[in-house]
Design a protein that fits this description.
The complex is a heterodimer of chains A (about 375) and B (about 300). Chain A is an alpha/beta fold and about 375 residues long. In chain A, about 45% of the residues lie in helices and about 20% in strands. The chains are: A alpha/beta (about 375), B mainly alpha (about 300).
Chain lengths: ~375, ~300
């Protein structure tokens, strides 16, 4: 708490005295970001994307000299395997290492929630790259670059109802994931408000792999539309099982369907399933987004996905905070500088305002995979 | 009623995977005396090998399955010779073998993660039987029928092998007492090698079929099978493949029916309540012999 007060004071002083850009610039040297990776474990497919995005941003910023001559931005990574206990150990080590100026972590909201009190107590700036639970940011210490999917889920559900005019709907939900339960509740509320009757909710678990029985259960409700609020692997399995069992009506997905690896795995099975998206390599429109796609594809031999974009923006955000500081910044001064940021620049979304420590994007683009593996606006022709 | 029948079929197909895995797991325990925590990785690696055979070599479905089954068997053979044979030679107990198997579980799991790029992969469409048959209006997916058929063939085949053949007699003799079996003219080393291969191949078959059915080929594939396979072996009996098969199918049906009519949250609880109940009331399982105790 004492450290929080100190940071608040630094924020006030910094806010009054902070120049628009650095006056003397950062002292030459290595500026390190502690990055709690999730490159192994059950959600490593996403963890690697976040990490690759962050790696690319750090290299680009260093190479560009944006932070000043001789200033090098590097990631110090420690693996957690999405295990809260390991993530906590990693964070304690980062806090003990005075060369670490800021940290980044977490796909799982439970892990982010575990680290939040630790960084608040230590005054260590933490920028979350993937956890979706609302309420995690707490400036000037905790920030989130995760584009929260809740409002986009609601917009997608409403759009699907407007387009398909269903009378009944069934839902799949990850019963062991509070964030997805909340997302389903919001989507269900919006769909019911549009006059669509709920005929059933099928619960699955994040570790499930066999979805034949849940698909049978959902089809048994005879819904006009099925909305899927689960993590990536269950979402893939559910859609495949529904289609395999002959369900030809509308299935509405969520943002977990956006990575290219999903189409590579599922092929045309996932075609025409709408989902919201805030970033897609295929739909990159701004020069920043196009440059990001080109550089990422060149470096990793695969196009970036939404996770890569969020990892990339984490480092851009921290660099933006460092950019206004002079000499040898401290964790406190960096936290205060980050709190002043109203819009992250550069960004790959065509606009990324920061509201109370939370990154946002302006528009919800509702898309679907085509049978050829492209991402196109849904429904096709619009 | 049709929904119930469909879910029972779903449960049978899921349970058939548990049963196939449990047969291999039980063989290792009954014959080699090893509670092998690494057994799940044989299923994962078999699925990965079958996928590679399909995608890289372009092998047709039967040959890709065979490649996965052989890979599962060879991996089991390798682990047995590298991890367990030295312990066996030194007369180390079951605890040492269990700890060693946990180490191999972690190592092989990590390597499987790297092999799949930490992704969940799937067999390409068209590379496996995806036809949907119908009984009246009830759908009968080809892969489910194939999985159940594979389980039945494996169960009867291995049961006959263990109970009606000279090799089976040698397996049972080695399982009971290797030294005494050697005095009786049995070559324990050959029996151990063959049993390890057979167990790995059977679990590998479970892994390949699970990878196709669930469209999930990843390092985590074997973990789910391991826990459920262990439960099936305990419920069915360590030393009888029929028990493991029946228990596996029963667990699959119980899981599916619980999720359909009670709650998904209770699904695994029912499985492990059954496990606990059998351990308390009938620790030898459905078909296990009363006097069967591993040395």
């Amino acid at each position: 708490m004492r450290i929080c007060w100190r940071m608040a004071a630094a924020l006030l002083i910094g806010g009054a005295a902070m120049p628009a850009a650095h006056a003397d610039g950062l002292a030459a040297g290595d500026y390190r970001i502690g990055f709690v990776t999730e490159n192994t474990g059950p959600i490593a497919f996403a963890g690697l994307s976040y990490y690759h995005g962050a790696q690319l941003a750090a290299e680009e910023i260093t190479a560009s000299g944006r932070l000043g001559a001789g200033v090098k931005l590097t990631l110090a990574d420690k693996e957690s395997g999405s295990d809260p206990a390991r993530a906590i150990q990693d964070m304690h080590q980062f806090i003990a290492d005075r060369s670490i100026l800021a940290t980044s972590c977490c796909i799982l909201s439970a892990v982010a929630g575990s680290l939040k009190p630790i960084v608040l107590g230590a005054g260590m700036p933490l920028v979350i790259f993937g956890a979706t639970a609302p309420g995690l940011p707490k400036p000037p210490v905790v920030y989130s670059m995760t584009i929260l999917p809740g409002p986009k889920d609601v917009a997608t559900a409403q759009h699907a109802v407007e387009v398909m005019h269903p009378k009944t709907a069934a839902y799949f939900v990850s019963a062991d994931n509070d964030a997805f339960k909340a997302r389903m509740a919001a989507g269900q509320h919006a769909v019911e408000a549009a006059g669509v009757k709920t005929v059933g909710v099928v619960s699955v678990l994040s570790s499930d792999t066999d979805f034949t029985a849940p698909a049978t259960q959902a089809i048994g409700y005879a819904p006009d539309m099925i909305l899927v609020y689960t993590t990536q692997t269950p979402a893939e399995g559910i859609i495949a099982a529904l289609r395999a069992r002959g369900y030809a009506k509308t299935i509405v997905g969520n943002d977990v369907l956006s990575p290219a690896t999903v189409f590579k795995k599922m092929g045309a099975t996932v075609a025409d399933v709408p989902f919201p998206i805030s970033f897609s390599a295929a739909l990159a429109a701004t020069p920043e987004a196009k440059a990001f796609v080109a550089a990422y594809t060149k470096k990793f031999d695969a196009p970036p996905d939404i996770y890569s974009a969020q990892g990339y923006q984490v480092v851009q955000f921290i660099a933006q905070g460092l950019h206004v500081l002079s000499g040898k910044p401290t964790r406190e001064s960096l936290g205060a500088a980050l709190a002043q940021i109203k819009s992250v620049e550069p960004n790959v979304y065509g606009g990324e305002p920061m509201v109370d420590g939370q990154a946002e994007t302006k528009d919800t683009v509702i898309v679907a995979w085509t049978k050829d593996g492209a991402i196109a606006p849904w429904p096709s022709g619009k | 009623m049709e929904l119930f029948a469909e879910q029972v079929l779903n449960g049978c197909a899921l349970g058939a995977l548990y049963a196939l895995f449990a047969i291999g797991f039980g063989l290792v325990f009954a014959t080699l005396g090893i509670l092998n925590a690494a057994h799940g990785t044989y299923a994962s690696w078999a699925a990965i090998a079958a996928l590679a055979a399909t995608e890289r070599l372009g092998l047709p479905f039967p040959l890709a399955v065979l490649a996965g089954v052989v890979a599962g068997g060879l991996l089991a053979l390798f682990v047995d010779q590298v991890a367990f044979q030295p312990l066996r030679a030194r007369g180390a107990g079951m605890l040492a073998a269990l700890i060693t198997s946990i180490a191999f579980w972690i190592i092989l799991d990590s390597l499987a993660g790297f092999a799949t790029g930490q992704q969940s992969l799937s067999f390409p469409q068209g590379s496996y039987p995806a036809r949907m048959y119908h009984l009246g209006t009830m759908p009968l997916p080809a892969m489910q029928l194939l999985t159940i058929a594979a389980m039945l063939v494996a169960t009867f085949g291995i049961h006959l092998l263990v109970r009606r053949s000279r090799f089976g007699a040698a397996m049972r003799a080695v399982g009971w007492n290797g030294a005494a079996a050697a005095l009786g003219g049995v070559n324990p080393r050959m029996v151990v090698l063959a049993t390890a291969f057979l167990a790995g191949a059977t679990s590998g078959l479970a892994g390949v079929l699970a990878g196709i059915s669930t469209q999930n080929v990843s390092f985590s594939l074997g973990e789910g099978l391991l826990l459920k396979g262990f439960a099936a072996v305990v419920v069915g009996g360590y030393d009888d493949v029929r028990g493991a098969a029946i228990a596996g199918v029963a667990l699959g049906i119980a899981e599916v029916i619980t999720a359909q009519y009670l709650s998904t949250s209770l699904r695994d609880g029912i499985t492990y309540a059954l496990l606990l109940g059998f351990l308390l009331v009938r620790p030898r399982g459905l078909f296990g012999r009363a006097g069967f105790v591993r040395a």
